[in-house]
Model the fold of this input.
Amino acid sequence: MLIPVSRCLRTVKALEYAKQMKANKQNEVTKRAVIASVNTRSLTNKWSDLSSKLFWEKRYANSMHADFDWLVDGDTIVSHIWQEIQSMKHISKSHLDILDLGCGFSNVSKRLLQLSDEPIHYVCLDFASEALAFQKQSLTSLGLGCNHRNSFGSFIVGDCRHLPFKKNTFDVVLDKGTTDSVMKHKTDGLKFAESTVIEGLRALKHSGILVQITDEEPDCRSLFLESVFRNNGMQFDIKYRFVCDDFGIEKNIFFIRNKKPS
Amino acid sequence: MAFLRPVTNRVLQLNKVLSPLSVGVRSVSSTNLKDVLANQIPAVQKDVVEFRKEYGSCKVGEVTLDMMYGGMRGIRGLVTETSVLDPEEGIRFRGYSIPECQKLLPRGGKKGDGEQMLPEGLFWLLCTSEIPTQEQANSVTKEWNERAALPNHVITMLNNFPANLHPMSQFSAAITALNSESKFAKAYHDGVKKGSYWEYVYEDSMDMIAKLPTVASIIYRNLYRDGTSVGAIDMDKDWSWNFASMLGYDNPDFTELMRLYLAIHSDHEGGNVSAHTTHLVGSALSDPYLAFAAGMNGLAGPLHGLANQEVLIWLTKVQKEVGKDVTESQLRDFVWNTLKSGQVVPGYGHAVLRKTDPRYTCQREFAQKKLPNDPMFKLVSMIYSVTPDILMEQGKAKNPWPNVDAHSGVLLQYYGMTEMNYYTVLFGVSRALGCLSSLIWDRALGLPLERPKSFDTKGLKKMLCK
Done:
């Protein structure tokens, strides 16, 4: 019946501890509520416009944006992907299939067809039909300017998050600033960006490359891509190179390839 | 005696469930930072050992030739526990973003009723990964106030520096000279066990952080206030309050600014020059004073710590060129011409985050509340709304956000601190919180000497060229 003093002290401490644990639990709940209320995604309207179809349709309706390249001009892009394209000649059969994901008014299409001495089937995809009308006109007027007479362009309206193509279709999928744009959506930016990457990889042949040009910090982009691969059980290799640094904003080009050989 | 039995029986039953923890546990609500750390360290050590046992040889990334020539950009080579950059929310101190810290951490003021968080609380968080209570933050204040006195030889040294010696040089030299007080150096010399190194690094860190405002204030007074005395520490006031007072500023808003500034500049992952240098030099078991002074030498470099000075200089130039009441379209033309001519808009980094840096936002919010009509602030507001538009119109960026340095100079000069050469010293005082909390953990986890492999170009060619 006599309880030793040490045991008394232990039980008192245990009581204190239990009280503290309860208080901590309450704090955790409050903490989580505070955190939830505080991390609002505060994008200005203008930037979230970049993920809006209406914005792009309006922008492309005004042809003063003709021959407009986001982030990096067509010539520089072509110079960066030229080696990769040349190395693919041996793998592919009659022609190279290239998909321009979110082509806009970009000049890459024209330059590539002008320069490539191997036939290229260049597919322009955009969700704004005005952009495709421009590309159609640009490539049609190229006519004999195409280096190889079997090179040609296709123009398809589509959403980069749900591509209207079968899997394993393209040798190269080019994403110049497209993932950057869809990422700007106020609430679902990351989800849309992930869909864009996954769709691009789905439409890509096993031996193909996904090329991304972005002004996002490369560590950031790498982490994002790695998390997409991890979440989807994919095994892809990421490499990137510095492209240019105009206006104090650095642009990098990413090359994403299948890890395992086919 | 009898009534105790049913009570204690119930509690003993509870005790059974809790027993592994209830024996020999120091108080979980301890206000002694060292005790809390001593409690945590063994478990964290064990966790890291087991993690490495299982995953130690797993690859985490690749190293390319460009990375070797490119300042190791993109190489994943360091482990720093105190902060990680979240691309969405900005820097996270032990997992907490700046807005979260502003809400959750204890504030300054008489009973924690001030507006801004206390750097003392942030230091507690960085060290322990736990949000401190007001009492815990106040206990750090008390410790720092008690440890703030400088040895005479350092005061003499500071007073003898010539006026043309840059404040950062004075700062770094004084910190190096403070190592006469290093408890770590003495303990190492006396041959203490490796397992207790962290305790001496802790003591030196607490001493150093306490003394930095005094050092910084003496430098300020000597250079810009005719060598007037910094006065005494008020034991009832917090670290930032005493710093502002020693500098000679008595505006309570400036004190709040100091609290905010010293908190948000404290840490930014482990790879930046000041943090990495402190870690690197510390890994050689140079005492914390030597390690941190080395970090400050890195911070003094134009590419690292001088950014907020650069922004203010540029803004002053802009103000001179476009005049006081500039319209948006005039400013647009000015910025466009600047960009076209190959210059950059300072305070505009490349896109590290996916949206505006919270360190920019919280300073902007401070300015909007306290100095909405200041012409320099209005200019900053306009520039940082005009510039992204221009970059977007010209298609040069899809992720152009302004960074932390855009506002800090503007805020400081508003309260009368116009001596731009001095701004980096403030940054340095703040950065001590991150560098030193990290250093404590470096020794606690027994991290070894840092020594990456280097090659010469010939050797690399041999390796790569076929």
Observations:
- Chain A has two domains: 5-49, 64-258.
- The two ends of chain A are 78 Å apart (CA to CA).
- The first strand of chain A starts at residue 96 and ends at 101.
